[in-house]
Predict the structure.
Amino acid sequence: MAKIDAFFKLMADQGASDLHLVAGSQPVLRIRGEMERVDYKAFEDDELRAILYEIAPEDKIKIFEETGDVDFGYEIPGLARYRANFFRQKWGVAAVFRQIPSKVLTVEDLGLPEICKKFAMLHKGLVLVTGPTGSGKSTTLAAIIDYANKHRKDHIITVEDPIEFVHQSQGCIVNHRELGTHTKSFAAALRGALREDPDIILVGEMRDLETIQLALEAAATGHLVFGTLHTTSAPKTVDRVIDVFPANQQGQIRTTLSESLKGVIAQNLFKRVDKKGRCAALEILVCTYAVGNLIREAKTHQLPSVMQTGKRLGMQTLDDAIMELLKKGWISPEDAYDKSIDKQKFVPFLKTPPPEF
């Protein structure tokens, strides 16, 4: 048993999502969104390096020594998987570990809306799950892939950095590929995937022009592609995809996106006030004919009003989702106000309205 495993056991006992180990500091756990120090001595740089290197593959240590940061996956059978990131900082080495539950939560477990099941059963197109870092994008995507795995008979390929949730093949064959270990880049893996007879492709992160271009191409040529972006709303997601391309290509990309995009889920995580845990507010855009027209005509600023009127199709704005959680008594008015888009709506719920109101 590696020395660091005791901290992972503590994470599980405390219900923490992240573990921070930093030279010159005590260990810190993120519990329900807040950082809490562990009653343990501060690490010396050499001591922490030895603890970290004990669990890192040789090739990852080499990359870390050369570049100053590295990502990889680590698993304790029967406990959980972890996404590890090592980096150098002023006082020496540091690492952050994000816990990935060994059990994939289902659409029902997470209380996701029915439209998520429909996204899982599409035959082609692009579905994007977006939100800030740590907003639960991977968990939502894993639930959608799990639903497809159970209800379809197809080939699913996931490309991640590193592999997070592991799906056992059920109705589908599931192949997991990891950056650096099984492929050089998202783009290289996507190019390869098109020759590997996939029905569903999951792209862990659409972070550059080439990856986005290939994902759009795959979606337009009869594959169902799921991807993630670090955007905060559905309209901003559409703009982000288009803005990645040079100005002279944006007209053509608008047309391609208007035909290929099937849905956007933009989410935000909230700390629950009624019990321990967190919950997600989801903004959902379903790409109808009207939405396709707005994308093609560069009128993405009108998308929120389409989401307001498209509730029967499963659409909802982020503010409506936040308001629903607030009225259920699950989240605090302050948190709702802080993460909302139209803040005016949430001012009446605040005990002390901010000065601007």
Remarks:
- The chain has a mean pLDDT of 93.
